[in-house]
Records
---
Amino acid sequence: MNDTKINNNYTDLLEAMLNASESEELLNSTFSLILKIFNIMTRVQIWEPIFQTNEYSVYYEFLNKDLSSMIKHHVPYLPESTKKDFENTPVWEYENIECISLNKFNISSLIATEISIQNKNNFLLVLTTDNKDLNLTIDDKKLFIKLAKLFEKEFSKIEDAFANNDKINRLQNQNTNLREQEQLRKNLINNISHELKTPLASILGFSNMLVSKELNQVSSKEIAEQIFQAAKRLSSIITDFLHINKTDTEGWYLNLEMCDIGEIIKESVEEFSSLYKEFKIIYHISNNYPIIKTDPKLVRQVLDNLISNSIKYSPSCGNIIVTLDIVSNNKEIIVSITDQGIGIDKDEFSKLFNRFYRSNNPQVQKVSGTGLGLAICKEIITALSGTIEVKSEPNKGSKFSFTLPV
Ligand code: ADP
């Protein structure tokens, strides 16, 4: 090798090392240049010691023809006897190697020196060749050691920067999570207070009217009815909260029995129809649907929740259709509730079933809610070994479907 060639390549190498921003890039660019400088060598490898087996595995490999990293082949420890101290740096030089595991990979000679990677010593930077003679001059060896030291320094810098970046990213993520949780907590307190205050205000207002006794018989009955409805609403909200807290620690308690899902749908639809006359709530039940073993009260809870959402989120009323079908070769039944309401943005689908999630859509914010209904539906359906999903289009309507095994 002549001096100008070495110097030029060394400058290129320095530049490549300084410009590399990832370890992979550093490995690729520097090792191709190392091979250019030592053109009699065929490959550059980094060997990692495996102490239990007294072998090295190839941690990284760069060939002058094609690149293949992390090849898992093992080579025996290099005998101490061949190690030489070269200006205080241990160097192994092997010529005409007679070692089956090395010859297998076309390695006939090699030069190696220790480097440290990720604060671990004992890795070896190895240049190998299929030539039987190494024919390296003293200057070549000096250069090899210089390159190894330079590589070690730049590689650690990149790894440190990478680790720091990783740390920063992790901290940033944690920060975002904390901020999201804080926002969720604030929303939750707002929602709960609002939810509890509305029926409570009705109860207080109406009961005050009763107390003032300025009412005749008929209106006191109507007022008592209003109080009853508000108290029922309050009770159902508190039940939801308690439910979700209880199932967190105890899971869902299932009361399984043979159920006629068609009948459950009919009862629920008829009840909602009589209460919400402005809606057209209908059902289509497929013929010969099977009787299934499930928890009827929980299924009814899911159904009521989904129909009540369809009503809540359909300000211009419209049709609500509940269907029962058989799918998956009679292995599952599927119940769907379709409305013509405000619909849901696709981006929100994945969050809908999270506890306390409510859309930011002003039309949703206008209606009161705790964001627990769908989360409870999902938990119940999962406990009953089914699945629940949503299809929707903003301003067109939504379809919530759940399956139950037969
Ligand atoms: P809540 O109705 O109390 O807000 P849910 O868990 O039942 O809580 O629903 C979560 C959110 O999903 C709602 O706030 C609303 O944004 C959306 N959503 C649920 N059902 C419908 C529906 N049928 N149409 C449009 N949006 C819906």
Note: Residues 10 and 37 are 8 Å apart (CA to CA).
---
Amino acid sequence: MKGIELIKIPKVSDIRGSIGVVEKDMIPFKINRVYYLYDVPHDAYRGGHAHKNLTQFLIALSGSFDVHLNNGKEKIKINLNKPNKGLLIKSGVWREIDNFSSGSVCLVLASEVYDESDYIRDYDSFKLFVEG
Ligand code: T46
């Protein structure tokens, strides 16, 4: 779907466990913020918005959750469930996140610092944004 991409994250494994590595050339933006969702109840609903400029890269560091994506033309649901697979979400994509497994952690690498004015939290405004 336009506006999203699943990107494989290389891992280095041995009998001591694994290391996942995200280096700057693997994602198409400079990281200006890192945040993470944790202690999320199973029945929580997060997202429910799009961004005007922000591009983000989501990784299920632990556990799993569903990301429902909508670029105004197409919709897709992606279950993120492995720390060696990241989801790139560009601007102009509506996202909703639910079905969090117990103890799940969602790491987010973001292209911009937090800015509430970058959010489109109203679905009708989102439709106008992507059509316009
Ligand atoms: C997305 C998912 C995965 C901050 O103060 N700083 C921050 O960097 C963030 C992300 C949030 N906040 C405050 C703003 C709100 O008062 O935390 C509250 C909840 O934020 P938000 O509505 O952004 O939370 P989510 O989990 O619904 O969505 C966030 C991202 O915004 C979103 O783009 O993909 O995490």
Note: The pocket of dTDP-4-keto-6-deoxyglucose is lined by residues 33, 35, 37, 46-47, 51, 56, 58, 95, 97, 106, 108, 114 (CB under 6 Å).
